[in-house]
């Protein structure tokens, strides 16, 4: 057996290792009961020169934004749009920064004016919004009349952009016909470069670190296995919390390789308060009375050369930041359709519940999925995708390129569902797949897959050993142990092909399922399962394949020019 499949101990070479439970945002949100929001303000169309006949985009955009701000001065907590079609300027999106407020579009349509810009947005929810709800209306782009001749790309025209916001509810909207993503999220809470720089508190360079550790009383001690900050960092400007990580470019773990690190907190006189075990990119709550922090990393040195692509040689190794992405968001009962790039481009956010939505006919330029978790990388955390429907999206229904603590459950998928190797700690359960390719990939082995149903599709289960942006510590050249993904209680029917590295099923139902032991396949392990009309084809080239089929009802046929690859060595439990 390859080392990465059997020895889980080596994944902790640089210290302790733990996987947090997913944190699911609480629902219903405080804005769910509209009857509690009785201070109603109806947009004053004439006063603010707002038009509802799909005309006068400049005046209408400006007027809506003035009226929304005016509502604050009246202490209104429920803002209602009169019915109509509001033409929105591509240069002046509607901005929502309200608190304890419901914004009821009341069935109105916000129609973007036709234009030739590569980048625009119709509505933006920004940092500062808190306990706000956007509901009951239509957001429509200009895809059908857009001037694509003005430049390249034109994939950044979005309907609704969530830059930030805490405790947000978005529901009963249709978002369609934009040149980019129907809905797009951000990972820092910043709209401008000055806002971004304000959220970056420190850039930590190798010159700020030395070999050594801290004892249980917060005092410096010698260690040949760890690194620590030389001087403490003042947390006064952090606002009660921070995160540490390589938060630029494609993120990842290019210099501080382990996801786990330690933060040692001290008061204003450098009296030790406590130590916390922390995970890169996840929020750390600063203890009461703490003013300073020392950082401790579970590796003896920092290389000048990044461990993976996407980082520059000789740069900082991480940053202390207090980003404010959209957090505690309930995104439900929306329809996202006919958007040119994506239905939902998830590029950052914490504690989201995405449920009871329809993603239909999205695509036209890459990636062309219903939902894409991508550009937020490790700053996409604690997200639940539940009970959604997907139909006729061009490239596929769901693609997950990164993120951590992700739960995908009770969805109905008709197209491709692709999980790349970088996501850390994901769960797929009780989903229904009725077509396309389902591909689970892992670099860490930290995933749970169970009680899903697959019909008339194909399945791939892969271990990705080609990159190291995984948060697992290792020495130069060392390959980290990763156990095979185990699929429990799965139901497969008419699955034309199962390919990949390790096939490990327990309590499964396999009806007309065809496994292919290809060039990368090393393990076929099926236990306590029901098998009917199923087979294993061994291709001629590839490594030895350990095969263990036990306690099954029914037999599986085996054939192919590569039968000689089969081994019957028992696996360690």
Describe this structure in words.
This protein is mostly beta strands. Helices cover 5% and strands 43% of the residues. Strand 14 (213-214) and strand 15 form a beta hairpin. The chain is globular, with a radius of gyration of 26 Å. It starts with a helix and ends in a 6-residue tail after the last strand. Residues 1-15 have low confidence and may be disordered.
The helix tally amounts to 3
Strand portion:
35-45%
Share of helix among residues?
under 10%
* Alpha carbon gyration radius: 26 Å
Q: Structural class of the secondary structure composition? A: mainly beta
Mean pLDDT: 93
Largest sheet: 21 strands, parallel
Shape: globular
Number of strands: 51
Write a brief caption for the model.
With 573 residues, the chain is mainly β. 5% of the residues lie in helices and 43% in strands.
Give a quick set of tags describing it.
18-stranded parallel sheet, mainly beta, 21-stranded parallel sheet, disordered N terminus, 573 residues, 51 strands, 43% strand
Topology readout:
Blueprint: H1 3-6, E1 40-42, H2 57-73, E2 78-80, E3 85-88, E4 94-96, E5 99-104, E6 109-112, E7 119-125, E8 130-140, E9 156-162, E10 166-176, E11 181-185, H3 193-199, E12 200-204, E13 209-211, E14 213-214, E15 220-221, E16 227-229, E17 233-234, E18 241-245, E19 260-266, E20 272-279, E21 284-285, E22 292-297, E23 318-321, E24 327-332, E25 335-337, E26 342-346, E27 349-355, E28 358-360, E29 369-373, E30 380-386, E31 389-391, E32 396-400, E33 404-409, E34 412-413, E35 417-419, E36 424-429, E37 432-433, E38 437-442, E39 447-450, E40 453-455, E41 458-463, E42 487-488, E43 491-500, E44 502-506, E45 509-517, E46 523-527, E47 530-532, E48 535-538, E49 545-550, E50 557-559, E51 566-567
Parallel strand pairs: 1-2, 2-5, 3-6, 4-7, 5-8, 6-8, 7-9, 8-10, 9-11, 10-24, 10-25, 11-26, 24-27, 25-28, 26-29, 27-30, 28-31, 29-32, 30-33, 32-35, 33-36, 34-37, 35-38, 36-39, 37-40, 38-41, 39-42, 40-43, 41-43, 42-44, 43-45, 44-46, 45-47, 45-48, 46-49, 48-50, 49-51
Antiparallel strand pairs: 12-23, 13-16, 14-15, 16-22, 17-22, 18-21, 18-23, 19-20, 19-22
